[in-house]
Amino acid sequence: MTEQALVDQDAPEAIRRKLGAKGQRTRQQLIDATVALLETHGLRDVSVVDVARAAQTSPATFYVYFKGVPEVVLAALESATQTSPELEAIIARDWLKPGAAADARMFVDHYTEIWNRNRTIFVVRNLAAEEGDARFYEARMNLARPIMGAISEQVERAQAAGRIPVDLSPRSCAGTMLMMLERLSAIGPMSRDDDGVGYADLKAAAAHSIAMMLGAREYL
User: Fold this and answer.
1) What burial letters (b/e) apply to 157-191, b meaning 16+ CB within 10 Å?
2) CA separation for the pair 156, 174 (Å, rounded)
3) Exposure b/e, 8-47, CB count within 10 A at least 16 = b
4) Rounded Cα gap, residues 165 and 190, in angstroms
5) How far apart are CA 71 and CA 8, in angstroms?
6) What is the pTM (predicted TM-score) of this model?
7) Is the pLDDT of residue 11 over 60?
8) At a CB cut-off of 8 Å and minimum separation 6, what does 78 contact?
9) In angstroms, rounded to a whole number, what is the distance separating the alpha carbons of residues 14 and 65?
10) Average pLDDT score over residue span 122-138
11) Can you say whether residue 99 is alpha, beta or left, with left for phi > 0 and alpha for psi between -120 and 50 degrees?
12) What angle do CA 18, 119, 83 make, to 5 degrees?
């Protein structure tokens, strides 16, 4: 089976298995070049020719690996993450005991740091999802599900303890937290202290909201 046939089958896992070391390097170069271009250009403003030129290859070579620029971003998202063992360990703590306020701030700091490691592709992903591209919406949800599930469990614990209303949907609470944190991660670094809305203050406010949603004792 040729490399082009693999692309036609739209099977990224098969591509990684079948490509040799040189092919994998070329594919990664195309991904890296695309991400670099998207740091200063919108998704619609980056063409296959632009990517091929930046990767020092040809459009014909590009099409061996990808159908278009959006597919490159989707490929980049496959190796991205919005969680880590440290972040999962923080959310797994007992939020009903004293100290949860500090845990909430630590959670916000870790989450925003992780998110901004992949800032470029996450911003592009979210914009495409909000414009109605189902592929990017699904990619967004796939990356959010692990941490969303962990937060949902803590919401359920807070509900069982009578700390927050039982009629709230735990997953909706988790989703709301993550939407807030995504916007904080995307916009926060550009905030200005002289506007009265600095990044540190925004993080503190987000941590307060999260701690309250999880039934932290300090805020009750």
Assistant:
1) bbbeeebbeeeeebeebbbbbbebbbebbbebeee
2) 11
3) eeeebeebeeebeeebeebbebbbebbbebbeeeebeebe
4) 35
5) 12
6) 0.85
7) no
8) 12
9) 11
10) 96
11) left
12) 75
